[in-house]
Amino acid sequence: MATANNSQKGVEKNLKAATASKKNAKTPKQDVTGGGTTGGENGDSPNNTDGQRFFAEPPVSVDGRVTLDGKFVNADDSQYYDSPYYKLNKNNVLGFRKTADPVFMDLNRVLSENTITKITEAGQISFHAVGDTGATTLSKFDNTENVSDMMVADLKLNNGPSFFYHLGDVVYNFGEEDYYYEQFYEPYRSYNAPIFAIPGNHDGMVFNDTMKSLQAFEENFCTDGPQKAPHAGTLVRTTMDQPGVYFTLDAPFVSIIGLYSNVLDGYPGGVISSMNGKFPNAGDDQLTFLKNELARLKTKRSTDPRAIILAVHHPLFSGDSKNGGSPLMTEDLNTVFKNAGLWPDAILSGHAHHYERFAYTVNNKEIPCIIAGSGGFNMTPIKNPPAHFQFPIPGRNDLIMKEYLPMYGYLDVTVNGKSKTLTITFNSAQTKDVAGKRNADSVTVNW
Q1: The whole model's pTM is what?
Q2: 3-state class of 366 per DSSP?
Q3: Which residues lie closer than 8 Å to 420 by C-beta, 6 or more apart?
Q4: How many other C-beta atoms lie within 10 A of the C-beta of residue 370?
Q5: DSSP assigned state of 188
Q6: Measuring CA to CA, which residue among 375, 287, 379, 393 is closest to residue 337?
Q7: What is the pLDDT of residues 243-272, one digit of tens each?
Q8: Domain annotation covers residue 94
Q9: pLDDT above 90 (res 40)
């Protein structure tokens, strides 16, 4: 009964504050006290507070899973999308820690000398890649675990994958440390190989001003040396000690440049720079990093031949009607690649919750741009997809949508140092070829 009275007093307080605000100012002030519900009215832009009226934050659960009356709450924190703080800030990119030198790490820092020797002698390396893996409800756990179980089985193959490169959105919806166990460590508890990662938008998003963007991600992937993972419970996987949220991984026959494309969920998609001051929080450190790394790899490639892969959570191009492509990020990337005289041999992304493969032609070089946001969080089909593939993108002569598959699955990337080829295969439990390997799509390019 006391709760009801306090709630009523809170609502009354809100009403008084709103009335006073209306009398004393043209723009209503935000009021987040009391026990009512969240709402807003007048004005479509979340950054435009003119005419908007906010009240209390939505109710929260005890531990993120259950309320005091015993009702189960899905661990997706979707109620925070109604938070006044999120609504006011969702179109603003967030700042992040600059990666300190050295900005690259070598795989031999993580794998044994014997393992690296075997890879070198075999003349090829393979690795897994997929994004958007975090399962937020019981009904989604099977999707994530079906994918992770297939990946675990691959490790037992001769010359099987040497590591897993996560393409972002490790934990939904706001990258909270509380969900690292159930969304990351538990599904991959049997994955006996290193896991590297770049953050996705959900890994960096926040829902109040006490949260630090990317804090939990850095605590699990960017520590000073391997440490006991603070959120792994009794599981033995240690943290990864990659240099930062953007970095380069050098391995035999391949270098993977990983970028952080920030927190925007809709247009304009990924952001990797300030875009001449439009997104000041993003800064321009990543452009400098990318420029310097391309120069380093251009020299390294002449004496130590290798494929170069770009990994970034937001895709450059996508037919997905919710997320779409990232035109501003694509502009930045094209400028840096052109000035460097070096383009990646493939670009891997997540974000859209399915599989897409584009062929992007630059200077007569066909670059596979692949979306594999199919790790288990959700499956979001494209509305009205093309009736056939290959599908040239209207108005462009440099971009073809080669394939689209609304399936859960993951990428197996193989780089052959002898033939100088790069093969990317999408594997899914929802299809099986005659050889028993679950290959749904594949592409091979020379590098």
Answers
A1: 0.81
A2: strand
A3: 305, 307, 446, 447
A4: 25
A5: T
A6: 287
A7: 999 999 999 999 999 999 999 887 788 999
A8: no
A9: no
Helix (H) or strand (E) holding 422: strand 421-427
Based on the domain organization, do 266 and 340 belong to the same domain?
yes
Q: Residue 58: is its pLDDT beyond 60?
A: no
Q: How far is CA 403 from the centre of its chain?
A: 21
Angstrom CA distances, 231 to 87, 221, 250, 306, 375, stand at: 29, 12, 28, 36, 21
Is the pLDDT assigned to residue 66 strictly greater than 90? no
226 vs 196: CA distance, rounded Å: 12
| Chosen domain end from 41, 62, 89 | 89
Q: Choose the final residue of a domain: 55, 89, 123.
A: 89
Region of residue 275 (phi > 0: left; psi between -120 and 50: alpha; otherwise: beta): left
Output helix, strand, coil percentages for the chain, rounded to the nearest 5: 25, 20, 55
Intra-chain end-to-end CA distance of the chain, in Å: 71
Residue 277 lies in a domain: yes
- pLDDT tens digits along 370-381: 999 999 999 998
pLDDT grade, residue 7 (50/70/90)? Answer: very low
- Hey, what's the torsion of the CAs at 263, 268, 269, 272, to 10 degrees? -70
CATH number of the domain within which 144 lies: 3.60.21.10
Q: Which contiguous run of DSSP H or E holds residue 262?
A: none
Q: Which two structure tokens, joined as six digits, stand for 194?
A: 């290193």
- In this structure, are 73 and 127 located in the same domain? no
Cα 292 to Cα 46, 102, 343, distances in angstroms: 37, 12, 14
Using an 8 Å Cβ cutoff, are 162 and 195 in contact?
Answer: no
| Domains contained in the chain, number | 2
Please tell me the distance from the alpha carbon of residue 392 to that of residue 394, in angstroms, as a whole number. Answer: 6
Residues 74 and 160 in one domain: no
Q: Can you tell me the distance from the alpha carbon of 58 to that of 36, in angstroms, rounded to the nearest whole number?
A: 8
- How many secondary structure helices (H) and strands (E) does the chain include? 9, 15
Instruction: Answer whether 94's CB lies under 8 Å from 263's CB.
Output: yes
Q: Could you tell me the two tokens for 249?
A: 């991984």
Q: Which residue has the tokens 């970034």?
A: 312
Cα separation, 92 vs 86, in Å, equals 10
Helix (H/G/I), strand (E/B), else coil: 68: coil
